[in-house]
Amino acid sequence: LLTKFDTISSGINAEYGEFKGNLLGYFPCAESKDEKSHARSVLTEIYIHLLGLVSLLDNNRINDAIPCAQELINRVMSVNKPTMHSLGARCFFYYSRAFEMAGRLHEARTLLHGRLRTSTLRHDTEGQAMLLNLLLRNYIHYNLYEQAEKLISKTTFPENANNNESARYLFYLGKIKATQLDYSEAFKNLNQAIRKAPQNAAIGFKQAATKLLVVVQLLLGEVPERHIFRDQHLREPLQPYLQLTQAVLAGDLAKFSSVLEKYSDKFMRAGTLTLINRLRHNVIKTGIKSVALSYSRISLADVAEKLQLDSPEDAEYIIAKAIHDGVIEATIDHDKGYMQSNDSANVYGTNEPLKAYHERIRFCLDIHNHSIKAMRFPPKSYNDNLEDAQKQREREQQDLEYAKEIAEEEDDGML
After folding, report:
1. Which is more confident, 206 or 415?
2. Higher per-residue pLDDT: 380 or 29
3. Closest C-alpha to 141, from 167, 107, 165
4. How far is CA 369 from CA 129, 205, 364, in A?
């Protein structure tokens, strides 16, 4: 069958000059005697058609792939069988992929919305998870984060979806939350996405998720763990992010600007440039914190020079905001133009340890809850070894009679 498919796919242009979008005519279905054999033949047709679409995409024949994808989806939508759920979800993935490669991803949005509604009504879990992820990818591709947030708020991702789709959904959700300044929720979702991803595969997905996770951690004011940058598959792709982390931790605005200028193209391709631009304030805040710890009193002009700010007035404004946010404990003398640092308080006398323990406990509870939800059991296997009520009563009656016989034998022996 595959040999025949390769021969046909290679000879399409030679015979017709242009692909017309229908591979099904090459594989006619034999008339089935019963419904089951007919369903198998339909699945075979759709599977062969899907192979044709994948072949066109692999050979970068985008103009031929679009009509092929449209014909395939029309065939899939004409079949309403539970056995089509898994294969149908895969067909919609390559349908969206064909439009994305052609630069016409927005044209697929209406059909995907309609099919998501249909999959929800038919309880098609695999199709529902796939279509929801495709729509989120569609919106994010065009930076339509508000529409993506509305879609998430009005839909429910199926809990029993496979781990691959769950990981993709959590990744898109983390990216949306990070763009909307909800960094804590974004950090949680990205962590879960990396855990749900395949351990020995999906290297590209884990690289993209880890890049976004590092930036979100820096925006939260946290330090990414060093072992992330030492991983065999992440060491080279995360090299720009390691330099970025070092600049942020040192509060070195010049180094931060240099790294941003040097790797701006890579950051843009990864979709993290917008978030990295927000880190400039974090770099300045770290620098102010370092200055406040190093000097008990320092002029605003010296602060502006150390942080490479434009003027002492800018330094005064940034220091005032840092004091208001609780980053440093200091006072500003506007008339004399200097900053006076206060004695640092004992952190264990504040609520900070309580907050840290609370975050860790919540993190562990979330892992436990998601592990419970991810457990899988064979369907209806829980009652295979259970007795029905009648058999249980008979067994109990036999045990009771046996006990009475033993008691009577013991009484006879004593007599």
Report:
1. 206
2. 380
3. 107
4. 20, 24, 9
Distance CA 300, CA 336 (A): 9
Q: Could you give the strand order of the β-sheet that contains 330-333, starting from the edge strand earlier in sequence? A: 297-299, 338-341, 330-333
Residue 369: other Cβ atoms inside 10 A: 10
Dist CA 194 CA 202 (whole Å):
10
Give the CA radius of gyration of the chain: 31
- Closest listed residue to residue 243, CA positions, set 230, 260, 219, 231: 260
Q: Which of 25-39, 96-110, 393-407 shows the highest mean pLDDT?
A: 96-110
CA atoms within 13 A on the CB side of 270: 26
Residue 327's pLDDT band, with cuts at 50, 70 and 90, is low
Which residues lie closer than 8 Å to 129 by C-beta, 6 or more apart?
A: 89, 157, 158, 161, 162, 165, 166, 169
Three-state secondary structure string covering 292-303: HHHCCEEEHHHH
Integer Cα distance of 242 and 224 in angstroms: 9
- Residue of 210, 290, 300 whose CA lies nearest to 249: 290
As a whole number of Å, the end-to-end CA separation of the chain is 85
Which one, of 208, 205, 322, lies nearest residue 269 by Cα?
208
Which residues lie across from 330 on neighbouring strands? 341
